[in-house]
Amino acid sequence: MRRLNYDENVGRIVTYRSRSGGESDGRFDLGGCRVDSASSVEREGATLAVGRDVAVAPAVAAEALRDTHTWPDWGPAIDAVESDDRHVTSGTRGRVSVGGAWIPFRVTACNDRRWEWRVAGVPATGHRVDRYPSESDRSRVVIEVPVAAAWYVPVCRRALDRFAALVEGDAER
User: Fold this and answer.
1) What DSSP string runs through 103-168?
2) Residue 108's pLDDT band (cuts 50, 70, 90)
3) Which of 9, 50, 43 shows the shortest CA–CA distance to 162?
């Protein structure tokens, strides 16, 4: 695995302009992902692994990552979720509201600490939780982004910061 310097390598790919000329609501801006974000980006074959350490056990992080009720809380692109399954499993179907449009999804693979999905029939991100063998109360949450969708990396960095705040806040209660 090669660690990418986000600002030098991925940042050039991610630069975009609004086609409508409208002002951003900040949900997807890199500025929304603080410069001091604890996330990192690594190249893993044909994907970019956007990862962040969280101060919770892998099982806790994995359960929260698979919980469709929390997706709008940490996923900047997701406004709402409808699914018969609260926690995704292989084959889970539903739809997500993104910018007011409802888009169907299907989970194509899932195990205890990893799942991937197709959104509107298109292969999308993978999600996983890596454990640290010597630290049972710490894990690394990773969103796997196809290299062709490198523009989505800032959204994932922001999502991971929000996810960490959510699960670490719940762990403190």
Assistant:
1) EEEEEEEEETTEEEEEETTEEEEEEEEEEETTEEEEEEEEEEEEGGGGGGHHHHHHHHHHHHHHHH
2) very high
3) 50
